[in-house]
Structure prediction request, 323 residues.
Amino acid sequence: MAAASMPAKFEVYRFDPSKDQVPRYDTFTLDLPPHTPVLTALLKIRTENDPSLTLRYSCRSAICGSCAMLINSKSRLACQTQIGPEIAAHGKIVIEPMRSQPVVRDLVVDQKPFWDRYRRIEPHLKLDAREPMPVGKENPMTPEQVERFKETPRCIACGACYSACPAVEADPAFPGPMALAKLYRFVVDPRDKAQKDRLVRIQPDGLWLCLRCHLCTEACPKDVRPSERIRDLKEMAIAAGGLSENGSRHAHAFKENIGEAGVLNEMKLVRQTYGPMDLLKSVPQGIKLARKKPEILKRPHPIEGIDEVKAIYKALDPEAEGK
Ligand code: FES
Prediction:
């Protein structure tokens, strides 16, 4: 039996930079079954209400990645998102173009910034010139080696993670979650011969700008889990290049602080994160902060339950005892 239709209200972002000064939202109400994909609804609007509505799509099966857009403020694939749960949660469906990329028209964005950042990580195998690939022969990997890619081969480059990422929006130096997940894939590929170089170069190139908010992992329609691979890259980068960057020193100092007292010692954290020259630059800001919040100058007392924190650290890294 066919599912009963329900009234669904859509507010769709409209903007044509060649003639509009500001964007507007057009409202459409359709009767549709709750399992209808948002993409199907948009195509119906285009066919029956407004043929000028501009959007990008191809496979309609969550494979090509081209229909990514904001659906009720979340970066999603329109062909994979059903209208029923959206109406139940929000009462309507607001559809907008992805963030951090200029709008070409309506729901279509110019993905050049996304692909430019992706190219910066050099997403191709780098072989050793002294050991060229044997012509006409395969360079196979074992199933165990393929397992090391984790979920990264699932990526369809839809850009949902890029659109969801606040670090992308804040800083052009950040390569973005998809680029870093792809970098991870090359770093763990046993055929790639530039592992250390990739890890050392990515640190000043923005690895540490990741805010650890996990919004990329939440947005990814293929469960690639970019934030987890960024975490892995950070660990591997420290192993390859040591504590050479403010970001790596900050992460290390944060862990040490919590392990000692269960709470941050902010003065120590700043001292450990920045080198002496950078620390001098932050003295005026530190004085202002200390005037407002003098307790930051004191060494914090260990929290109640610090022994449990220490036990967790010990369980995670038994060899750290006595270091
Ligand atoms: S149309 Fe291909 S992923 Fe949605």
Residues 103 and 243 are 40 Å apart (CA to CA). The mean pLDDT is 92.
